[in-house]
């Protein structure tokens, strides 16, 4: 079994470069299906397992996908298939993002039902409500969602009950080739939505208002392959910002975009972390003592749920009582039990978690329950006494490129091993964190 072994106690310093954003590149690759002519070339593509999964989905749909170094080229000009099997959807929920493009281009999409996952039930009713409002008939049966439209989708007004990122993206992609104008109200405002809109517009679409609560899309008759560079990953950037803070380090996070990180920057500053905007990124300097704060996850520009577990690791080291409330996903606290195994004084109360810090974290064998939990446990390991071993690295590989190597380059005592290769470790060593 593969695991990451981290020995806490090192202050991180140096520069780390942020990759292209996973949550931007997945919808952008799905959107390449909309081009019936020309190739799309996507730059700054991170080498993540999710990128390989979405590429496999596209190949299944008969698109030609070439993966190069940080670059993906897609030719979707051939006749497309319409079915995305469970094999891929199970691995990665973002596979449902091919529905909008397929409905727009082929008038039909058949996608396996995603099912539940470690952070909550994650229904897609808002995506389907949007497609139906545009004239599609949606049927669910035998583990599949079948959506079909006679003729073309028709533009209309769609109000989302919740500003869902995926629903906004899927409906946007369906609407770009629809007849007439589509207006999505109460839509998501995440930077990844703006990135997708920019790519769609480069393909010849007419999307306005991305980044605000209302998006307006005028349908066009045809889209063309285009070139696009994805935005930097704000969650990876945020994870390294926490790594600097939790070790009392001094790290330049190169490529971090301050405007994408306002809520995280505000909370870190409230905790006593120094953050300096430099020309090509953010310098993060951890204080001697961290202060407790309360956090509530919200849709953008609120505090991102994808930074909740990493921030929880940091709050374990802060002086005082902190409360973290999760409002986006109903079950995103699986990492709490793992933190307790590391001697965290932390408990769940309904949709909130109460942390009494500072905790004297101890290294332990812990299991990553989802992608961000994996990163959070490694972060906690950086500040724990002795050795922390983190297993289930398939989650980490979905969203972080060479995470342990990047941390090691900043001075962390960390390695990734196979059980067979693991050397015998001394039990506990003294550290001063
Ligand atoms: C690939 C990608 O970009 N993933 C991100 C995306 O996921 P994703 O697009 O799945 O997240 P959503 O914004 O859609 O989900 C937010 C909430 O809305 C609910 N919901 C969503 C759709 C729907 O039709 N019905 C419904 O009830 C979900 O169950 C969840 O409770 O945004 C999340 C929220 O910022 C992030 O954590 C994920 O990292
Ligand atoms: C929850 C996440 O991703 P996904 O929606 O792909 O599961 C994430 O990036 O933290």
* Secondary-structure class: alpha/beta
Helix content: 25-40%
How widely separated are the two ends? 29 Å
How many DSSP-defined strands?
25
- Major sheet size, sense and barrel closure: 5 strands, mixed
Bound molecules: uridine-diphosphate-N-acetylglucosamine, phosphoenolpyruvate
Number of domains as seen in the coordinates: 2
- The CATH architecture of the largest domain can be given as Alpha-beta prism
How confident is the prediction overall: mean pLDDT?
95
The backbone outline, from C-alpha atoms, is elongated
- Distinct helical segment count: 14
Radius of gyration: 22 Å
CATH topology description of the largest domain: UDP-n-acetylglucosamine1-carboxyvinyl-transferase, Chain
**Poorly predicted regions:** 424-433
CATH superfamily of the largest domain: Enolpyruvate transferase domain
Task: Describe the 3D structure.
It contains 14 helices and 25 strands. It is an alpha/beta fold and 433 residues long. It has two domains: 2-19 and 232-418, UDP-n-acetylglucosamine1-carboxyvinyl-transferase, Chain, CATH 3.65.10.10; 22-229, UDP-n-acetylglucosamine1-carboxyvinyl-transferase, Chain, CATH 3.65.10. The strands form six sheets. Strands 18, 19, 20, 21 and 22 form a five-stranded mixed beta sheet that branches. Strand 4 (64-68) and strand 5 (71-75) form a beta hairpin. Helix 5 (125-133) runs parallel beside helix 6 and helix 6 (165-175) packs parallel to helix 7 (191-202). The protein is elongated and about 65 Å long. The two termini are 29 Å apart. Mean pLDDT is 95; it is low at 424-433.
